[in-house]
Automatic annotation (TrEMBL):
Protein name in UniProt: Glucosamine-6-phosphate isomerase
Transmembrane segments: none
Keyword Hydrolase among record annotations: yes
UniProt-listed Enzyme Commission number(s): 3.5.99.6
HAMAP family: GlcN6P_deamin
NCBIfam families in the cross-refs: nagB
Amino acid sequence: MRLIVREDSTSVAEYVADYITTRIKEFGPSLSRPFVLGLPTGSSPIEVYRVLTAKYKAGEISFEHVITFNMDEYVGIPRDHPQSYHSFMWHYFFSHVNVRPENVHILNGNAEDLESECAQFEAAIKEVGGIDLFLAGIGEDGHIAFNEPGSSLASRTRVKTLAYDTILANSRFFDNDVNQVPKMALTVGVQTILDAREVVTIALGARKAVALQKCIELGVNHMWTLSALQLHRHSMVVADEDATLELQVKTVKYFKSIEKVAREEGFDQALPRHLRQGTRVVTCSETKANGRTMSPVALKPNEVQPYLLRANSPVLSGPISRSTTPEPTLDSMGSRIEIRA
Ligand SMILES: N[C@@H]1[C@@H](O)[C@H](O)[C@@H](COP(=O)(O)O)O[C@@H]1O
């Protein structure tokens, strides 16, 4: 598990939105090969959705060929209830981007047969080839999705009774009245999340600090279900400073040093190795490749095959081709890099 620490919730949201954007662009989704994105609700991802929406409106990212699966949904409140996760997702994200409604999957908490609803959800994930990136939040009791303390770490999508702590925490969305909070939910299981190719978790604020400490510094434990991500090869937590308050200083320092060394060595450690292979990392503020403006991320191999542009290097420009290795020249403006195949 990796830990990325950022100053505040805004920088966390920017990091996570950049990361998701990079992933989707690297993947290059198409109708026949869509990108599959798992999504959470809660207050933590709201800013991420805002930044992703801004990126979409700026033409940086398209969700046309992105299939989404949401983590969970309450049982027994109408789909159009303001606090249903259906309402949440359309309000904060889906209505603002070009995701196709038929590509959106949110569990139906009012299905006649809830067990079959859950089984169909698992089948739908399987049918599209699994989830490429699952975005998650963390509950104050360390839960992921609605996998409450004590959940099986081998669990799959199912009906779950909510823990009192969760009902209490979520009552802030229901006029602070615990009696209005649904007592049950449908949720993906821990194993459903572990099956994703990559998991990115957002942890914000001091109220998540204890949970984060348990999930990162202690062992895998079914009482803090997010800790199961320690078993995942490509999982990353992106936290603000407040969420790290209960971690040991040396833990935070270690994870910060990983990121620093990776940056100095000129590659983005956050990219899983299999996705890093054949990519070249560009860390200037903006790049142009083949006349297209790209965000400061990893370019596809066929776009800048021979180049590794080191982090913190001066911003360079000049013609670059796959077969030759011309000397890049310094951009006197110091703000752009031109890459031409
Ligand atoms: N089921 C959701 C979780 O998926 C979410 O991670 C958690 C944290 O919410 P928040 O981000 O509002 O703290 O809330 C709910 O319990």
